[in-house]
Design a protein that fits this description.
With about 375 residues, the chain is α+β, with helices and mostly antiparallel strands. It has 11 helices and 14 strands.
Amino acid sequence: MSAPSSLDRRTLLIAGALAPALGGARAVAAPGPGRGPWRTAPAQAHGLSIPALRRAADALGARGERQGLVVVRHGVLVFETYWKNAYHLGRPDWPNVSFSSGKSWGSAMVGRAVTEGLLKTSDLVAKYHDPMVSGLRPDTTIEHLLTMTSGGTLNVKPSSRRPPRLDEPATAGPGVEYARQAEGERGSPPGYGVSIAPGSTFYYDGAPADHLANVVAAASGVTSLRYMMEHVVRPLGCETFRYQPEGVDKAGNIRIGGSILLSCRDMARLGQLYLNRGRWADGQLVSADYIARALTPSRLNPSYGYLWWLNGAGRVPAAPGDMVFAAGARGQFCFVLPRHDMVIATMGFGAEQLSPQEAWLALAPALPA
């Protein structure tokens, strides 16, 4: 990657003001954009310093591998910046690969199905998805899949593909299907996917979570792709959200572990939904009870909820304890900061990983005291 000084970066310093209220329903609407575009306002009108945000963006982009940064406060977009590099154009609508931050979108899809009364997190997966097909043990529950405590499966889909370089031809592969492995991935515990009892071991692995798509499809009577797009993505007003071709299988079921293409602006919508405790526009898109459980430490890992990372146990040492975040490979993050009433989304791609701690140390100086 080129040095930061040579980056062709476009920074959008937001001017303008909150749109006026549009009638009674608008007046009681939850913070955020609803189905429309993000409302914008100057950062200083919401207690943030533009010079400090610029310095944070410079620190975050110092490796030359960032693609975008979006800062939302009080439900309003107050700052965004974009970088052009070998993989990305410096545009607000440029989509990036979610990698594992897509898991948190999967949690929202399950939460919507729970809210609509289609299923319960205590339900056995086998009620919707045959263990002979899933490879999961018959006593696995939906909550086990949400908390990475299922004991695993050997019936898996491959990982997300990286985005192509701008000078590479696009490779639109076919949808990937489940395939049986002979044994668990390197580093998995002995007996993973074979003999580990559900609810006995935490092991971070997106493969079991992918089966939540089959559960939602069976419970709703439509493909999980259709359910996600019609019951989550469209109500949120996402503008760029779609799946990589390999992220949708022949049955129309999506990967939960990744393979989403979306912008930083759309990533921030997910964070705002959780910051709102499931309220969106003038309704409850996901029940507050589900959001509360999703952001409560699971029994086997105090830093993990329902496909969301939690910071109450200090996983990101310098960050607030009430912070929660979606995280994916190559530094795809959506930080939700209740005490600051903020959402920060950043995405990129590079040869090196970017840890949540590294991202936080770059961003923290720009936050309110």
